[in-house]
Amino acid sequence: MPDFVPREHMSALRHTGLSCRSIRWACAALFAGAACNADSATSVSAPATPTTPGAPPTATPVAATVTVTAGATVVNVDAQRLLGVTFEGRTSSRIGATGATPAGLYDDVTGNLYPGVAALWNSLPLTGMRYPGNAVNARWDWKGTIGPIAQRLLQQLSAGAPAQRVAFGFDEYMAMAAARGVAAADIQIMIVIYPTASAPDPAASAADWVEYANAPNDGSNVRGGTDWAAMRAANGHPAPYGIRIWNIGNEPWTTSEYNFVAAPYIAQVLPIIDAMLEADPTLRITIPALGTATSPWNAGILASSAITSRAWGLSPHFFYNDAGSSGTIAQSEAGLVAVAQQAAAKGLSVVIGDHAHSIPTQNTTATVDLAMQWQGALTTASFLAMASQVANVNRANFWIFGMPSAVWHPIRMNADGSYTKMALASLYELLQPVLLTQSLATTVIETSAGALPVRAAAFRSADGKRLNVVVVNSDRTVDQVVDFATPAGLARVGARLVTATALDADNFTTASVTSLAGGRWALPKTSMLLLEFAAP
Q1: Residue 269, CA distances (Å) to 192, 264, 311 in order
Q2: How many separate domains does the chain show?
Q3: Are residues 445 and 498 in the same domain?
Q4: Residues with Cβ within 8 Å of residue 525, at least 6 apart in sequence
Q5: What per-residue confidence (pLDDT) applies to 155?
Q6: Which of 431, 455, 470 delimits the end of a domain?
Q7: Of the four listed, 92, 193, 217, 251, which is most buried by Cβ atoms within 10 Å?
């Protein structure tokens, strides 16, 4: 595998047996004061009959009740922003000792999409993008990614590969994002915080990038020196991009950087932040954080008024699985809730910088693929449903798109040079129209404890005329049944069950379904139910 090295804090995938349970799910109301239709909850006496993932539901297992009640609480006012992705800046690089193998989506000479992957990448809806991913760890120089390709700086982008030019650079990335409908307000930039041979002053380099991105091309050149706005105009983009969210590093807490001690990081980045804010005082600065409640790194960051007074948000990372005792969605939830509350106490927002199904450090092709296959998609759906229920989460980004040859590869490059859109990428395509503007407070109440609880979330359009409900059953052995009370003023317009033939299936199937007796909905093990409602 190329140099996307799995994080040290990622846990190995482990599977456990699961016990049966029943659940009662309550979703907060959609309309203040609106009553719910009284769908009956017929008792079920038949035992659960396990079904195979991908097979049509044939049983009436333990009952689960889903009700919609009055008094809606909107948790997230723009839930679409949860479907952001991190995009790898080295997407036009090559790997291998001779640089013979293309690593990403874009040609290393022309900067154009490779024809074989164009349809797969272009079909993916994009709502927000974080950039340039692991290129920050490679200490790339953003100035070597602009201007005529033949004149760009040769950079060492991957271990063991020759130095090469970035053909798909910053301006190409911004053009791609604009063409795909991603507003500058939904772009997040990660900066290098260490001196390099080509950029010995990281503060000046970061401030120059801010000026290149955001300064008006009017000759003002407020910082003096190179007129970066004029250079941007010469490179074909006279208008400022207007990028607001800038993240200071990637994962500086790791043992290879600051080893969870925040003080030296703070000393390193304060001059960088100040230089960036001088270039554009409207920036929203985000600070890397861990997704745990008791991290000494987070405590050090939050204790620094110098940082919190300059920052707009914290950017924790989450790498999770739902099949073991470590790194579970439940543990991610506890960490996210705590970090969001700690951030709110300081007047800060939370941007989930990266999240993905974890991959063990000692991995195989099978374990790497599993994180992108149906198991990874199902677990990611559970994480997104969970995250939609946590207040003060501004947005989230999946790790990582743009490098089909990498360890995390939602689009996989196969040995024969072809490409496969994995279940994870297809999940984002599926959910983009489902996650409506507002996420509504949703509570899951279980009558017995279970290792893998059902996750659920409701999403409402801003005008209140549409409602979608997502219910995820990650359990490996137990089928479920969901009861749902249709809210007054809406009618059901769709119901789909999402299943796969196995957890290691490269993709899944989505089929329209009808309700069981009593208006219930089958929710087999390792499946997802989508219910859609609209005003008549």
Answers
A1: 10, 9, 12
A2: 2
A3: yes
A4: 50, 51, 53, 473, 475, 476, 477, 478, 479, 480
A5: 96
A6: 431
A7: 92
Query: CA–CA separation, 358 vs 159, rounded Å?
Result: 23
CATH code, 248? 3.20.20.80
Residue at 156: amino acid letter: Q
Categorize the per-residue pLDDT at 142 as very low, low, confident or very high, splitting at 50, 70 and 90: very high
Distance CA 249, CA 241 (A): 21
Largest CA distance in the chain: 78
Predicted local confidence at residue 487, as pLDDT: 82
The residue ranking higher by pLDDT, 244 or 363, is 244
Q: Cβ distance 429 to 124 under 8 Å?
A: yes
Nearest-angstrom CA–CA distance, 123 and 426: 9
For residue 49, what pLDDT is reported?
35
Question: How far is the C-alpha of 445 from the C-alpha of 448, rounded, in Å?
Answer: 9
Q: Are 122 and 401 in contact (CB under 8 A)?
A: no
Helices 374-387/329-345 angle, 10° precision: 30
The type of residue at 510 is: T
Do 68 and 126 lie in one domain? The reply is: no
- Rounded to whole angstroms, the Cα distance separating 340 from 336 reads 6
Q: Per the domain annotation, does 206 fall within a domain? A: yes
CA distances from 42 to 63, 135, 306, 521 (A): 9, 56, 59, 12
Residue 443 binned pLDDT confidence (cut-offs 50, 70, 90): confident
Q: Which residues contact 264 (CB under 8 A, 6 or more apart)?
A: 258
Quote the pLDDT of residue 362.
86
If you average pLDDT over every residue of the chain, what do you get? 86
